[in-house]
Design brief:
The complex is a heterodimer of chains A (296) and B (270). Chain A is an all-alpha fold and 296 residues long. Chain A contains 14 helices and two strands; from the N terminus they run H-H-E-E-H-H-H-H-H-H-H-H-H-H-H-H. Chain B is globular.
């Protein structure tokens, strides 16, 4: 009797061991990817973090103290202003489009989504270039506005805050629309019918039923757009024409112009901490991290 | 078309015409400015306008006759091709392993693998530049492929994991109970069924590498200058109309890839 029991137990233990090895083997399939991410992302970021606290004499906070200088505060303000503005405009433009697309027949919705995906697949540089050509002083937009007699003198549309914002909204809009559309598509139409049945006006039903139900998508879109805007380099560097200093440009400049690793790493750590803090905050608020990750 | 509300709680299409107009304008804003580059690239003068005053292919000639642009294109295509291979293989393996394993750590590992998408690219670029300097990987194809693959892995992971969710893993169990080894079961049963998401992931990796500017700006100097790097520098210093012709080629390429991915998507959903 006891011999049989012990055999059973041995068998169980052997099976458990086998199952564990199996699981471990499955897990090991992710090791090449993890190795790559660890080597290319984690090691350098750790190193940057360490560098930001170091100078020739050892531990120091000097790099961070320098960030208190007013010029950095200005950069930080520009960065946040642009990120807020771009996010707000993306909500205003993206929400109605996603709303209409979610109500369309599948065929029409596919055409709309194709229009949203097209800029998504087109090179970032190509789109920025298009704006540069269209918005410049003797560019197409100014020519048209003058031909139609709307303005007399060409507007300054590029190499400033306005141009940067126009270009950035264009780049960011798909990131807002796609998660919004996904969230709206999953809203049951019967809720709106029930609200109407209970006497709510369409406007009231929209604000009290539809908007709250679309919040996960909105949260995901806002988070992605805001975080990407904070760290954006290419479009502000080209459309801002050096007059719009973003945080990311400050990092590149402190390296390319001053070869100042201490400043660059401290600036980088600050950007990373702000980014992670915002992501954490949003994921607490909406639990939308997964929705955002599925957005692309 | 609903002209009059059927009930007091209905809104007619006419009442929300403003909404349709707004949406039309947004779609216009998303698509048209980029497409305007195509006719403008056939302009005969240095100053690009729409419609061009004179038509010519001089900017295409300028592109194809320039050894520098051709070299940059070749580097970019090589980097994109290798990135597609590395990112798709490692990313798909990771997606499969993390999806099938029931260990609790898988969730954390997935987050770790999505990190390259979350961390600002400029930061990655600075870090990679610093890491590659002692390893002499700066200005090398290997360095470019390694960093672009890392950027593409999150996208592959997300796309393939989404594909795995629609696949019944029991099918693989059946294949294994009939004597197939795990690799064989994966290759003959699982992979054919998630094929479309794997191909979509590969297309995405290709685009990520072909479009990447910031890392290339820092690490891809000299002979290893990629097309986006050259384009960025040319745009920053002076607007060279040759970029219009390159842009047109890139736009057509992205329309092709988008069409392909849509085609695969529709096949997948069927």
């Amino acid at each position: 009797m006891s011999a049989a029991e012990s055999t059973d137990r041995q068998n169980e233990a052997a099976l458990a061991r086998q199952a564990f090895t199996e699981q471990l083997r499955l897990l090991s399939l992710s090791f090449p990817a993890l190795l790559l991410v660890g080597f290319i992302v984690l090691v350098p970021i750790g190193w940057l973090f360490w560098l930001s606290f170091m100078d020739a004499d050892g531990f120091t906070l000097a790099h961070y103290e320098r960030l208190l200088h007013p010029s950095y505060a200005l950069t930080l303000r520009t960065t946040f202003e642009l990120a807020f503005l771009v996010t707000a405009v993306c909500v205003v433009l993206g929400y109605p489009l996603a709303y209409i697309a979610a109500q369309m027949s599948p065929r029409s919705a596919r055409i709309v989504l194709l229009c949203v995906l097209f800029p998504f697949w087109t090179s970032l540089l190509v789109r920025t270039y298009a704006w540069l050509v269209l918005l410049q002083r003797r560019g197409q937009l100014n020519t048209w506005l003058q031909d139609w007699g709307i303005i007399d003198t060409p507007l300054r549309l590029v190499h400033n805050f306005t141009g940067t914002a126009i270009g950035m909204v264009h780049i960011m809009l798909p990131f807002m629309i796609l998660p919004l559309y996904a969230a709206m598509k999953s809203i049951d139409e019967n809720y709106m019918r029930a609200a109407a049945n209970l006497g709510a006006s369409p406007v009231k039903a929209f604000w009290q039923i539809y908007v709250p139900l679309s919040l996960p998508g909105l949260g995901a879109g806002v988070m992605v757009v805001f975080v990407l805007s904070l760290g954006f380099y290419v479009t502000p560097a080209l459309l801002g024409g050096g007059r719009v200093m973003m945080w990311a440009m400050q990092i590149e400049r402190s390296l390319a112009v001053y070869s100042d690793w201490g400043a660059a790493s401290a600036l980088g750590v600050v950007l990373l901490v702000i980014t992670l803090a915002i992501l954490w905050l949003f994921s607490r608020l909406t639990g939308a991290v997964n929705a955002a990750a599925g957005g692309r | 078309m609903l002209r009059r509300p059927a009930t007091s709680t209905q809104i007619t299409h006419l009442q929300r015409l403003w909404l349709y107009i707004l949406c039309g304008l947004v779609l216009f804003y998303l698509v048209v400015p980029t497409l305007l580059v195509i006719p403008m690239s056939f302009s005969g003068s240095r100053f690009l306008s729409f419609p061009p005053e004179t038509w010519s292919v001089r900017w295409y000639k300028a592109y194809f006759n320039s050894a520098e642009w051709r070299a940059a294109t070749s580097v970019s295509l090589q980097a994109a091709a290798w990135t597609t291979v590395v990112a798709t293989v490692t990313g798909t393996l990771a997606a499969y392993g993390l999806h099938c394993s029931r260990m609790r750590i898988t969730k954390h590992l997935s987050v770790l693998l999505v990190l390259p998408m979350i961390i600002p690219v400029i930061l990655l670029a600075v870090g990679i530049f610093m890491l590659f300097a002692p390893l002499q990987l700066n200005s090398s194809l290997t360095g470019l492929v390694l960093s672009h693959s890392t950027l593409a892995i999150p996208l592959v992971l997300i796309t393939v994991t989404a594909g795995m969710r629609n696949f019944d893993l029991n099918q693989e169990q059946v294949a294994r109970s009939l004597g197939a080894s795990r690799p064989k079961a994966f290759l003959t049963v699982t992979l054919p069924q998630i094929r479309n998401s794997v191909v979509s992931a590969a297309l995405l990796s290709f685009v990520v590498s072909l479009d990447e500017v910031v890392i290339a700006l820092l690490i891809a100097g000299g002979d290893m200058a990629t097309l986006p790097r050259r384009m960025f520098l040319a745009l920053r210093d002076e607007i060279d109309p040759t970029i219009a012709s390159i842009s047109t080629i890139l736009i057509l390429l992205s329309i092709l890839l988008l069409g392909l991915s849509q085609f695969l998507d529709r096949k997948r959903s069927r």
